Amino acid sequence: MKTLNHREIDAILAELALENMALRRVRQADYRRIFFEFSGPGKRETICVTLSPPYVRLHRFDEPLPKALPRPPRFAAVLKARLEGARLVHQEQLGQERIVRWEFHKGGEILFLDAKLWANAANLILSSKSGCIIDAFSRRPNRQEIPGACWPPQELFVEKKREDLRDGAATIQKKQWEIRSLPGKGDWNSRVAQYFQKLEENDDAKSRRREWTTHIQKHLKALELRQAKLEASASTDQSQEGYWAGLILANQHKIHRGDQEVEVTDWQNPDAILCIPLNPALNAVANAEHYFDKQRRREGALARLQEEREVLEAEHRHWSHLAQRLVEGSLEAPFDAPPHQQEKRASKVGEKPLPGLWITKPPYLFVVGRNAKESDEILRRWARGNDLWFHVRDYAGSHVFLRGMRGKSIPLEIMLDAGTLAMRHSKAKNLSSADLYCTAVKNLRRVKGGKAGSVIPTHEKNLRITMDEKRLKRLLHNSNQN
Q1: CATH number for the segment(s) 6-176
Q2: Continuous H helices in 236-283
Q3: What are the residue ranges spanned by the domains of the chain?
Q4: Axis crossing angle, helix 469-477 with helix 412-424, rounded to the nearest 10
Q5: Which of 335, 337, 383 is nearest to 358 (CA)?
Q6: DSSP 150
């Protein structure tokens, strides 16, 4: 049995000499516990009421108090307003119902605070002397535990069951109501606190293991799907463009402008004839250069595929290592917190401000990393997957990130603004025009072992920018450096 029975609650109250002590402070540290700090002549006591099932309980709290929530929730605010400074004149358990009643007097007003320590319906209820509920920790209309309702309702207290219980049943009932022999040191309050804390820690560890197991399996499955797509892409990227370009140059005497194809002998298979498509608007040399260019782009894509393959393999090793540590029973970081808290912890910016040049043009935001270090820090700490990334092609320079409204396309004028900023903060700033890469941040891959800010873009688009000094002046007017 995880909850306290009525005999154990009586034993707890017997050790708490709270009568005639003043309630100094009500503190809510989380959404399952409320702490009551009492003080009297020469002593202080702190009582913890835990309302989260299945470990509902009340006991003395001897450890350092946790930090209170930044803003007291509704019920805690009511208790602070109505009970802080009040004197506790009496405490008791109502019958054998596992309901602890505290009677407070404050300025001639009598108030009752009842802790209902039921595993399936725990609650804290503040009521007046007339029995009208002022407020409750959990408002439950179906149980009449709402402001204005009568408390406690008569049907809450059940009559004692028939006296003629069989001996066996009476033995079971008596055993159920015994005070358990709990491990630990100190009085009954201390042992109850230690016992339930241990239970919660064990349950928390099991819950975290389940969450991390699911989290790791999800990541491994996603990585396997990405690896399968990558291998399929690599296998279909085999091409003959460079070979065809060589054949075109070797047979250019057969080709005239306007031809849509040319038949040539296959060098790799002399008995076969190859039919190579041509662009009728180009001559033989231009057609060959076109195929050479396609081959170069394809080779670059294959190189990026290899980089992505290495990144995926490193990620797979990382998550497989975490899975192995979990199987071995590790509870050290990152398993010392649930996955979602670890992700928040990892993405928390902290006190150090983000670097870079920040420019607002509502509802759009431009962020310029003016050097490799700034660009790398912005990419790691701020950029999101759907933000756009801009960089001047073939020139060293800054990374520019553009964030707009979620689900909305970016207008061309805004993209030209971002491109102008990228060109201004690059080695191409003295040119009249330049070509830029443009892609989503989620399509960037960091270079393994490369310098800070080194990335490989995929699915990039080309943007031609002509330097416009008036546009640049308007943008810099709205920057964080102005």
Answers
A1: 2.30.310.10
A2: 241-250
A3: 6-176, 222-256+282-346, 349-477
A4: 90
A5: 383
A6: B
